Amino acid sequence: TANQMWGGRFAAGPDAIMEAINASIGFDKRMAAQDIAGSRAHAAMLGATGILEPSDVQAIREGLLTVLSEIEAGTFQFSTALEDIHMNVEARLKQIIGEPAGRLHTGRSRNDQVATDFKLWVRDQLDAAEQGLIALIGALLDQAEAGADWVMPGFTHLQTAQPVTWGHHMMAYVEMFGRDLCRVRDARARMNTSPLGAAALAGTSFPIDRHMTAEALGFDAPAANSLDAVSDRDFALEFLGAASICAMHLSRFAEELVIWSSAQFRFVSLSDRFSTGSSIMPQKKNPDAAELIRAKVGRIFGANTALMMVMKGLPLTYSKDMQEDKEQVFDAADNLMLALAVMTGMVGDMTANRESLAAAAGSGFSTATDLADWLVRVLGLPFRDAHHITGSIVALAESRGCDLPDLTLDDMTSVYEGITAEVFEVLGVENSVRSRTSYGGTAPEQVRAQIARWKELMA
Ligand code: ARG
User: Fold this and answer.
1) Mind listing the pLDDT tens digit for each residue in 249-280?
2) Where is the Fumarate lyase N-terminal domain (predicted)?
3) What is the DSSP letter of 52?
């Protein structure tokens, strides 16, 4: 039998395999609450503008609440033959209230309806991501505060570069996730216009009030061009873009946690609550949570790419291709929220091993730059010469199998005569980090100033 929603011109129903490719109810039922909220706003507006009788609006409002409660209770029978959430809800409404249900779709199309539902859904995810990021930043600030002056090696090329502080390293991630927070907020502000009432693509001849429905649904304004309103999925792409960058940050941090929790590094201990064991090796405590977070960027970035490919060649306005937007966004959102929550838990629980960090901070000739700077500052050498002399001193230490502070003054002067005993003051890691007082540098006073700034921003 032909479809009850659009089958007027059809003699036969769809082939089973056609139904399989066409139906979206298997996934778009996740937008049921948004669909009903949109319909309630639309019905109230149809009443307020006199397009529908108050009695019809009343019946629709009550019927939609019944449908919502059935969906929430899990008793709603979803039908693949009814294609999607929009037609499933409307068909059930018809069973409950009869004829007035058929008046709900006045001045509306599934094209503006789905755009509205999906926007509302994505907007909720932007809000959830915002909360997830705030929680993660809070956990990082706690870690930074606890170890604002704990020394550790800073790396470039994953080779020891210069000593930094634990707090400084944690605050680097606060900056990254802080930018993610801004991106999420920016995206929300930009996407917050209502497609509802754009109808199929051209608007409608009914005297609808799009400002009223926009306001009822928490949008700042109606989308200003009906063609754009039904064909725009930028909001989903901006969410996926922000989610991809955030997942990339999570992945980099996860990678560091994997390295840092190894027996070779011992920079951090992850809690039992966020680790797993091995079924054969009794000693193992594996950072599975960090590894899984590290991998999540793959599917989130994949979703971003997939939706870009879906949208890139579509002529205006709606094409059914756009039904392929939802699963990508659903999956990316689920995995982003999971990764944020797990990272927050892991960071909150983890213990930085202050001694291991300090021991590593002094190894690998990490204060060589301090030595070169000293030659410039105290002996007045050009930096390039100081660099060369320091390189020779590092080579000497390496041949002795010791670190820079273990060399004697005679060792030093054998390379460059003018060096005096005060040089040893700058070879210690504590002095090194304390000296990096430039704005944004690793000196504990700078780190504490940044922690205070962020705490104020987050309050
Ligand atoms: N299920 C559809 C989607 O997700 C709803 C819009 C259908 N519109 C149409 N003209 N067939 O995109």
Assistant:
1) 999 999 999 999 999 999 999 998 988 888 87
2) 8-302
3) S
